[in-house]
Amino acid sequence: MKQSRYIILSLLFGMSTLAVIAQTHLGGVKISEKHVIKKTGHTANVKMNLNLTAMPDMKSNLLMVVTPIIRSNTSNDQVALRPFLLMGNRRYRIIDRRITLDKHHIYNQPDTKPSAMVKRHNGKEQSMDYSAATPYRPWMRHSSMILLAENTGCADCPLGSEETTLTDDALVPLYEADYRYRIIVPEGELLKKREETLSAHLAYRVGKYTVLPDFDGNPTELARIDSKLKEIRGDSDITFEKLSMVGYASPEGGAEYNVQLSKDRAHSFADYLMRKYPILKNRFENDWKGPDWAGLRTAVVKSDLSQKAAILDIIDQKPAGERTAALQAIDGGSLYATLLSDYYPPLRRSELTFHIVVKGFELDKAREIIKTHPSRLSLAEVYAVAQSYPEGSYERYETWTTAEKAFPKAIEPTANAAIIDLRAGRYPQALARLEARKSEPKLWMLLGLAYAYSEKWAEAESYLTRAAQQGQPGAQHNLDELRHYMQDNL
């Protein structure tokens, strides 16, 4: 019930709430049990034995309307419970007579009837039992039990109020889930084959395919390729296997024309590289894909173009040979002009993939390699690097977040980075990285736990159930823990 319903007892008795005065009587009230509230279902049941023995003597005319209050330790929330009366001998007789003779007396009404009327026996051992029930609220997990008294003397003259804290840990502790999860130890690799890619955007004269090393931005692009090959040839930790290249063209013009142009440019660029780098002899493969509609679609999806939906519909629904005309018809051609100037140039490129074999690394070398070429490590080596740093350190976390970017298809880096997030209480970060890969069944248990820690109970139960159905280690235990926690806490 609301606090005001019970505090009004004092007001209806002709009192006004005065400033809290120094504790004079309530400070002597003691309880033997620290926890006096027990959650049962959605109800908070209060039960306490109040020892009044140490209270100072009460004057015979003193009336104390005592209201137990459950008060949050972390917010302004509180709930007042049904009050009880503590009285001196004369005052007890007066009030007892009044309520006996007057059935309409405030203390005879259902909403304002005190839970108990107690006559104080000064100088003697005395105790009383108090019980009440109120709807449970989550903030009660961290709450105190307060006694607030409004005191009156003879003729109901107000004597002020006093307050005491019986316990600052009122609720019987609720069930704490014991979730279990641990860092995944990756398997090693017998042979570390890696692919490192480089996208070259060579400029050609319109409709031409001859490579012009000094034309437009070509010097910069060719220098990047040269630097990469020199790096590979000069690294004793690497064995170079081959270079594969795929050429792409932008989609303007006729489909057949662009396919042929893309093919000619790929052949021309391949011939150029073969002539310049003898190391590529018998270790070079080239291919071409023609107009890169898929690349255009990806760029449009990421854009803020106002006609995005119309463009995607054309790409998805129309044959390649009809798309250019359809795009040109949108918005009187202004949209197509934007595509030509801003979206088509990046599509004209050659994707180079350097195929290498990397030798195994000792720990000290691996700790250096992860800073420059993390993908050249095996996941087992990444694990060794991570474990070489202290538990809870930023370096251990950074090792796995770096590996997560270097091995985007692997499960272990994402899982281990998320586990470290969970252990550190970074629940939003853990949830974000796991939600991004929610299609991966092997991550469902951790995703369920991330939802649980984020208090998204339905999602947590759903993913832990799916993980348990797949027989993932620890999933059934964690699902049982979640359900036990939800039953006791929610």
Automatic annotation (TrEMBL):
Residues 110-130 are annotated as: Disordered. SUPFAM superfamilies: OmpA-like, TPR-like. The keyword Signal applies. Coiled coil: none annotated. Residues 1-21 form the signal peptide. It comes from the Bacteria. Keywords: Signal. The keyword Cytoplasm does not apply. This is Uncharacterized protein. It comes from Porphyromonas gulae. The lineage of its organism: Bacteria, Pseudomonadati, Bacteroidota, Bacteroidia, Bacteroidales.
